[in-house]
Fold this protein.
Amino acid sequence: MTGATQGIGLAIARALANEGCTLIVCGRNEKQLRRVEQQLARHDVDVLAHVCDVRDEQNVADLFQAVRRKFRRIDILVNNAGIAHPDSSIAKLPSDVWADVIATNLTGMFLVTKAALPLMKRGGVIVNNLSIAAKQVFPGSSAYNASKHGALGFTNTLREELRAKGIRVIAMLPGATDTAIWNTLWPDAPRKKMLPPRAIAQALVSAVRQKEGTIEEVTIRPSGGTL
């Protein structure tokens, strides 16, 4: 899974470890990744931790070469890597910020999925962790909104392409979740009202457990639905 070193990604990795899954985790920060690797190893599961920047096609290729050498197949792919940007109108948003968000949240998902597909067989599951921003828009977050809308379109297309091959594709659309991304999006956000990352992880595990074809999209929001 991508983006596994903090927030929702780390919670998902822990939840899958609790299920006894062998884990392949990646992230950009090697120091954080090694710490997570040690934490997950305590669950008595096999863990491959690999530094990878999903924006970089060669990085992604190197990751899956390592996966192929050690495991030869992938049963569950979780695309979770994502970034946000500070509140900014479209007129003032720097083009390099736009490009970085799109590259991470959308192009990265494409690159990882494309590289993973040769290692997946019937019965496999792909879970793309998106956001309610895939269906709503939030002023000041144009690049983030666009990346998530695009990622949902990609996810829905992928599902139809893989349906006949027996590979399930699930879109996760969490509402406001208490993670470090709010330090960028909204530093003063009311974090106590948000979902805990473990709630998203539990919903993901539940969706993956379901029989083939029963769940294609999961939306989860905080109580009151105001965030």
About this structure: The CA atoms of residues 54 and 60 lie 6 Å apart. Helices lie at 7-18, 30-41, 57-70, 95-116, 142-162, 182-185, 197-209.
